[in-house]
Amino acid sequence: MIEVLDCTLRDGGYYTNWDFEENLTRNYFEAMEALPVSYIEIGYRSLLQNDYKGEYNFCPDYVIANARRYMPSKKIGVILNEKEIKPGDLRQLLGSCVGKLDFVRMAIDPANWKRAKSSAEEIKKMGFEVGFNVMYMSKWTAEYPSFIDDIAALNGVVDSFAMVDSFGSMYPHEVVEITCRVKSVLKCKIGFHGHNNTELAFANTLAAIEAGCDIVDATVTGMGRGAGNLRTELFLSYLSSKEGWNVDFNRLSTTVADFERMKEQYGWGTNLPYMVSGFNSLPQKDVMDWVTRRFYSINSILQALNNMKDKKGDNLKLPEFNSDKQHFEQAIIIGGGPSGANAAKAIKQLITKRKNKSMCLIHASSKNAGYYKDLDIPQFFCLVGNEGHRLEKVFADFDPDRISCVLPPYPRKMGTYVPEKLLGKSYELTDVTFSDLYQDSHTALALQIALELSVSTLYIAGYDGYDGLIGENERMLTQENEYLLSRIVDNNRQMEVATITATKYKGVKNLSVYGLLTE
Amino acid sequence: MIEVLDCTLRDGGYYTNWDFEENLTRNYFEAMEALPVSYIEIGYRSLLQNDYKGEYNFCPDYVIANARRYMPSKKIGVILNEKEIKPGDLRQLLGSCVGKLDFVRMAIDPANWKRAKSSAEEIKKMGFEVGFNVMYMSKWTAEYPSFIDDIAALNGVVDSFAMVDSFGSMYPHEVVEITCRVKSVLKCKIGFHGHNNTELAFANTLAAIEAGCDIVDATVTGMGRGAGNLRTELFLSYLSSKEGWNVDFNRLSTTVADFERMKEQYGWGTNLPYMVSGFNSLPQKDVMDWVTRRFYSINSILQALNNMKDKKGDNLKLPEFNSDKQHFEQAIIIGGGPSGANAAKAIKQLITKRKNKSMCLIHASSKNAGYYKDLDIPQFFCLVGNEGHRLEKVFADFDPDRISCVLPPYPRKMGTYVPEKLLGKSYELTDVTFSDLYQDSHTALALQIALELSVSTLYIAGYDGYDGLIGENERMLTQENEYLLSRIVDNNRQMEVATITATKYKGVKNLSVYGLLTE
């Protein structure tokens, strides 16, 4: 008889930083109470951490009491991050949960399973059912060849042992093989926690069941780290149709609808980068960060994944930027905002007007570059991530002697992609000196270029900011640009910095390019 | 050596009615040309039909020429709907494609395979490679037990034979079994076309390959009827990682991004209704219609699917509405718009003012009903689809002697769900007499109730219509309401009909409830 463990809030919390609206959690708890789900893992339990995380990362006692109120008939539990636990912490962490929680699981790196065993013994003494949730299943055979035999030592210690396909990279036949081996060693209940990178979470779960797995992990709408998990509604529909389980589809669809609405905002589920990370057993932590920030193009992410797969941290060391200590009196940074195009005529006139000064242009974005192709002053292009493709098209119209590309310092986390014909014109910075944050961004690059060129006057155009309602990405970009602009102003008092087109960004003097023309 | 057949435009056309933007198709064709995909099925080829369908449902010659221009190195083909073909049509349908198309497939009901064989022979004579695409794979064994043996007659006639998991209901072990049997009978290439209702499209494809399948059907982002197909990008990522195929991920991700944007609009992919239809081998045509119109709640759809599964057309015949020929002089229909709540006070005063008339209230929607709970006149509730749950909460506050529910005529396509405690108070219409369209809608029901009650004056409140930018659903609802309102006015000249709250709907006299109070 299969049992279902739902861990929607715990694994879904990776998307919401473990904050959930009360209405949603209540509907969810009520649905779980009504559905044939045996275990509900409501979140992580942790001690205070240095960065903010929400309610369901700590599960304070009132959260547990609330869950119990709505789910009186269910086994309720939390999971601990084994690597964060010091053995002395367990009493403090779990003492007040005794009698209130049914089970405690631990997320465990297989390298640490012995240490985890000691914690398990202590947790068990406190009266909880104890579960192991052991990660990196796809690496057990190759990297921990004796692991499965060794864990015979867990008999009598743990009540359940879940195998976690952390990378979403397993195939059904591999799941069958490992499940059979684990099953032959351990007497406790065996669980399977799939990830859906390659859309095999359900097939792998069926394979695990075929091989004798007892507990299946699932989350509503598959909400979970990276590509997410087996969907609870899929597995319950299966059990309803094939095993005749009694499923209250009204309750189920009500909570599914709640999470579907959140999914439109956060967009979990698999996509090309998660597929590639899955097929190559690469961690989804970085991929999730890249994908959800929507800052990098899919191409950049795929490039980075290919580098990871080939174990290349980076694939290209470039010559140092400005090793010959060029210097310009004035520079104009052109951003990607509409004014970078609208004001192009005025900016070009300004450059003509100041032809007695040494001037250069710095393109923070490739977007508006085309408007400046006919200028005869040096132009620098910031190349972040995988923009080489876009730049390739832009470059075709430029005087090749006037242009060069500048990349962030080596090694670049996302790898380096420079189109072949730009190779001789591409340089890297040695450092970003004026800011500790956002060092990889277009704006940081553009500002650092101005510093390296020791300009006395720096004008900035095409940094319009955003009007009206803005989304998460625009908000993040605003924050980033304001931070960087304030750093450059504060740290470089000898340089005159001004935006010269209309802008919503604060903290920098805002002149008008049109006024500079009549000056 | 596996070959890939991409049929994104053909199968994805079910969502866009086979119209696609030119930029998108060009990017797609260029990507296909660059990727290791052998066959591109660009659409249906059909003769003129009675209802509008777009470019890729007919694939006129210029469409084929355009596809060829961008994909000079690929095998390009179309698919025919076998059941629509008359043998005499083939020359007219395909004559101008000779030398321009490489292959022609036919979508075939297994019941018609012999008839399809004759067409295949003729198509082959014209010089095309001919493919069978045989549907309902999950029913072959039970409903067509000799089918697989019989199709030995296709040897020498067809160049490929694809097995279509039409309902998305197959399990990998079943795919292996059927593929092996087909493979033992046919000498041509064997293909597999999966659907992703239960997220097993990829696992089933791997199973088909294991059993000797030669050609795999896929679509970019899985775009395809209902829950959609195996994703091209998933399968190519697999082939790249596991088989070392050379995949240009830049090209691939560019076309994937185009289709992902469309997916946000059309929302293909699986969900609870598709899962239930999949697990029970139910056709996704109706489900797709229900899901994409977003008119019915998930609960209604699940109810309808359960009825289908149990082979119940409908599960409840109710007593006829108004069999005792009640009559009211005046009725007020309350819709779900904000004015149905905002004007509640005025409407209730109007009812008090006219207490010398016999009056009743008809709730087209349950949304605003609560505002009218303290009235002592009869109130009728329109119960469409699965609204019973919502009504259950609303009803609690009403005087039980004053209320009744009215449902559309029997049998109801979506089945009937009436909460138990409302059963004695629920009736069905025998007919919707004043309109040929939208007979199942809330508004049709409300208006028909007024007709059945032979009211002389019908007031309508809470039909506000929509302001500003509206989406597809609001547009459809507007069209529906305007049509129904104009029908009731045109067909019932003896009844005075007027909206009495602010409305954007045209064609009905618009009075003011506030004016009626000062009259």
UniProtKB/TrEMBL annotation, chains A, B:
UniProt xrefs under Gene3D superfamilies: Aldolase class I
Pfam family name, one: HMGL-like
GO terms under biological process: L-leucine biosynthetic process
GO molecular function, one term: 2-isopropylmalate synthase activity
Record carries keyword Manganese: yes
Sequence ranges assigned to domain Pyruvate carboxyltransferase in this UniProt record: 2-253
Entry keywords, A to Z: Manganese
Protein name: 4-hydroxy 2-oxovalerate aldolase
